[in-house]
Write a structure and sequence with these properties.
alpha/beta, 7 strands, 38% helix, 21% strand
């Protein structure tokens, strides 16, 4: 069974690091074939390099259309025989070109209990809404923003005096535990089918 992951990042890569750690600690039976960033200065690339994982920077700025960029990403992932694509802070919307290339094989982690608070700044959305609970969701990516089927969720209470940053920090701790578990569940499902 192919358990090769392709991880896409744009920034610090803390969820990537959590996935790497889970693999090294044998909590996640998978390997990371490649980490692709759309920004050369993405600090998360260092996590991959330190773990001996191949990295690639494909800047979206070198392409005239989103479809053209996504075709380049798909090509790089398919060349490495990736079974599952994991978005880990990849700050680009994926086009149907990408989604159709990996049907039901793209995961994302989002810092809210979807379907509540999709899109940007979900922690601030939760605070503005007066929510008593927020959390993290791992979901399949489909053609609608943060609307794919939920794989796994975990709640995080909103505390009195929370700011978007303090809530985000507590949710991130949960994300780091949740994402590897959800990836394992999806891989197990793929191997069973």
């Amino acid at each position: 069974m192919n358990r090769r992951l392709g991880v896409l990042i744009s920034g610090r890569g803390s969820n990537l690091k959590a996935i790497i750690d889970a693999i090294e600690q044998k909590r996640l039976d998978a390997s990371i074939a490649i980490v692709i960033a759309n920004r050369a200065d993405a600090p998360g690339l260092d996590h991959a390099r330190k773990a001996g994982i191949e990295t690639l920077v494909i800047s979206h700025k070198g392409f005239t259309t989103r479809d053209e960029y996504d075709r380049a990403l798909v090509g790089a992932l398919k060349e490495r025989n990736v079974a599952l694509v994991c978005l880990a802070g990849f700050m680009r919307l994926l086009s149907p070109v990408f989604i159709d290339a990996f049907p039901h094989r793209i995961l994302n982690i989002h810092p809210s209990l979807l379907p509540k608070y999709p899109g940007l700044h979900p922690q601030q959305q939760a605070l503005d809404d007066g929510a008593s609970v927020s959390g993290a969701t791992v979901h399949f990516v489909n053609k609608e923003l943060d609307a794919g089927p939920v794989v796994m969720q975990q709640a995080v209470p909103v505390q009195r005096g929370d700011t978007a940053d303090s809530l985000a920090a507590r949710i991130l701790i949960v994300e780091h535990q949740l994402y590897p578990r959800a990836i394992q569940q999806v891989l197990n499902g793929l191997s069973a089918s």
